[in-house]
Amino acid sequence: MNKTAALVDSSFEKSYTPIMRRYNLTVTLLAIIALVFSCAVLEAQHTPTEFRHQFESEVAESVEPAGTVEPVVTTKTAEFDPSSITPEVYEETKHDIFRFIDNLNSIIKDKRYSVWMQYLDTEYYQYINSPDYLRGISKAKILTSRKIVLSDAYDYFIHVVVPSRSNDKVDDIEFLSENRVKAINIYNGRRVILYDLEKTQSGWKIVMPNSMR
Question: What are 130-188's pLDDT values in tens digits?
């Protein structure tokens, strides 16, 4: 009787073990597929442009980040007359800015924080690294819904710049002085300011917009 029971148990174990292995493998594969799908859905929720515009609209009442929509008005001043810029200088500068933004997009896409910092003017970096600015930015629903609180410029880069500024496109530029321009994107018929840029001895830098001073 014991020998018969042992044979039955052995036979059952031989047939049961492969079934359980297949079951465990199936469950594991389904879990992996679900994880990949959920990540893909999360990424697909916002394109960089959509993220940027949603983010900016949510923080507009507390602080004004770079890239906000504001009137683009070319005015003549005693210090600088925009009409003094020749078509040749305009086209040359526009191509320079195109290259600058293309390089910047690649750096942001690759999450190269230390390189990105080199594209920022010191005053601008200090501003986005300030506690008051980060506190205001952290109130954006798109961040609070993910329980993200920004504590420094690195957090700002990873959670705001990377998802929103890796695919910027420049459609036009506006001269503020001989060495300073606004990079403009046209979005839904509106002229959107992407960056305030200033040409220095080491190249173009992202600088503080006058509206943030």
Answer: 999 999 999 999 899 999 999 999 999 999 999 999 999 999 999 999 999 999 999 88
- Burial class for 108, CB neighbours closer than 10 Å (0-12, 13-18, 19+): buried
CB 189 within 8 A of CB 49: no
Task: Give which of 96, 113, 111 is closest to 203, Cα–Cα.
Answer: 96
**Beta carbons of 199 and 180 less than 8 angstroms apart:** yes
| CA quadruple 88, 183, 124, 109: dihedral, nearest 10 | -110
Full-model pTM: 0.68
Q: Where are the domains of the chain?
A: 1-45, 48-212
What tokens were used for 7? Answer: 């044979």
SS3 per-residue string spanning 139-157: CCHHHHCCCCCCCCHHHHH
